[in-house]
Amino acid sequence: MSKVLGVLGGMGPAATLDFLTKVQAFTPAKKDQDHIRVIVDINPQVPDRNDPFAKPGPILAEMAGALRGAGADVLAIACNTAHVHAGLISRSSGLPLIDMIATGARAARDTGARRAGVLGTKDAVKLYHEYLAAQGMGLVTLPPEAQTGFMTLLNMIKAGDRSTSVRQGMADLAQILVSEGAEAVIAGCTEVPLVLTPGEVSVPLLDAGELLARRCVNVCLGLEPVPVLEG
């Protein structure tokens, strides 16, 4: 019997729905009963992960506990930046977490790249820096002005804007990372793949949400080991 996946979502809602679509697409199913069971909390009321004065950790921990109470065996967070609170979420719920940041960093290593660029919030970029370093890789970041531009685009996407100008803006930011030496680019925010496709980037573009979705399916079906529960 497959394990039940619990998803902490709503950060933002469109990105969570995109993640769930990928979970469904990656499941080798011929009938309804072949799919894994997924319990999802789409909670847009989680405090802003990019506000230094907000405190999303306790809310995320509460969500994780509720998912366990509803029957989840293993957790995933459909938001890169919220992984700042990954340890708290896992410890408070007593459930193992399939880590999106670790998954993305390993995929970057597997491309053979020596340096990876990340399109993500400042906190997400910091997390990727740590995990990429553990893989022996360097990190390429956007210049400050371009990072500010990324946050502007991110907020526009969250508001439902997927216009040509937003898509071009995100592609331009990816190209800046490539010009700075990135040999792979990680879409380190779950909104990025809503407007950016691999064909628009001249190096491998790694969708962290897609990689996480595939790994979640594999873990729940017993094709990959369950992550070790953090103490």
Describe the structure.
This protein is an alpha/beta fold. It has helices at residues 13-26, 56-70, 86-93, 100-110, 122-134, 144-158, 164-179, 208-220, and strands at 5-9, 38-42, 74-77, 115-119, 138-140, 184-187, 205-207. The protein has two domains: 5-99 and 210-221, Rossmann fold; 101-208, Rossmann fold. The chain is 45% helix and 13% strand. Helix 5 links the parallel strand 4 (115-119) and strand 5. The protein is globular.
Short structural summary:
By secondary structure, this protein is an alpha/beta fold.
Secondary structure elements and pairings:
Blueprint: E1 5-9, H1 13-26, E2 38-42, H2 56-70, E3 74-77, H3 86-93, H4 100-110, E4 115-119, H5 122-134, E5 138-140, H6 144-158, H7 164-179, E6 184-187, E7 205-207, H8 208-220
Parallel strand pairs: 1-2, 1-3, 4-5, 4-6, 6-7
How much β-strand is present in the residues?
5-15%
- Overall number of domains: 2
Bin the helical content: 40-55%
Query: What is the CATH topology assignment of the largest domain?
Result: Rossmann fold
Show unreliable segments: none
Q: Tell me the CATH architecture of the largest domain.
A: 3-Layer(aba) Sandwich
